[in-house]
Design a protein that fits this description.
- The protein is of the alpha+beta class.
- 26% of the residues lie in helices and 27% in strands.
- The protein is built from four helices and seven strands.
- Strands 1-2-3-4-5-7-6 form a seven-stranded mixed sheet.
- Strand 2 and strand 3 form a beta hairpin.
- The chain is globular and about 40 Å long.
């Protein structure tokens, strides 16, 4: 019997699981040279993400294991930056639809908070992520079209926008 997936807002008890999930995918799965020190936002999720129109969600199995995450960062002017969208390899695809559930949660949140657009940056290595975002209505934009407050991560090379 498959275990159900629960999407819930981030709580301090999820800190270790979120960090482990994200670093494992970045470093081990994709070979990206990024550390927790390069991502201080992960040490300060409540004060960094859960303010203004922003939020952070973790996904847990019934046993409480973090298997996915998504964050929306308020960057002003009714715009959000989609950050930290990660799903454990075992929970990707149509069987669990974890990514779809996470993105739906984020889009519903944005719409209910009168957000006009969501922007995101990603690395060129995340080909499946590019297809996922494009399939879900995100349009690729050039770096030069990003608003001044958009937080570009050093590994980001592709950028997308979703208009609400």
């Amino acid at each position: 019997m498959e275990k159900s997936i629960t999407i819930k807002e981030y709580e301090e008890e999820n800190q270790e699981g979120v960090l482990e999930l994200i670093l494992q995918i970045q470093q081990d799965e994709y070979g990206i040279a990024i550390t927790s020190e390069d991502q201080p936002d992960l040490e300060e999720i409540p004060t960094f993400y859960q303010k203004g129109k922003g939020n952070f969600w973790g996904v847990a199995e019934q046993q409480g294991r973090v298997i996915g995450a998504i964050a929306l960062l308020d960057i002003g002017d009714n715009r959000l930056a989609l950050r930290k969208m990660f799903v454990h390899k075992e929970f990707r695809g149509s069987r669990f639809r974890t990514a779809d559930q996470l993105l739906s949660q984020a889009l519903e949140w944005a719409e209910s908070h009168s957000v006009e657009s969501i922007l995101l940056g990603t690395t060129s290595a995340f080909k499946a992520a590019h297809r996922f975002y494009e399939k879900n209505g995100f349009v690729e934009v050039g770096r030069s079209s990003l608003p001044e407050g958009f937080p570009v991560v050093k590994v980001d090379t592709k950028f997308y926008q979703y208009k609400i």
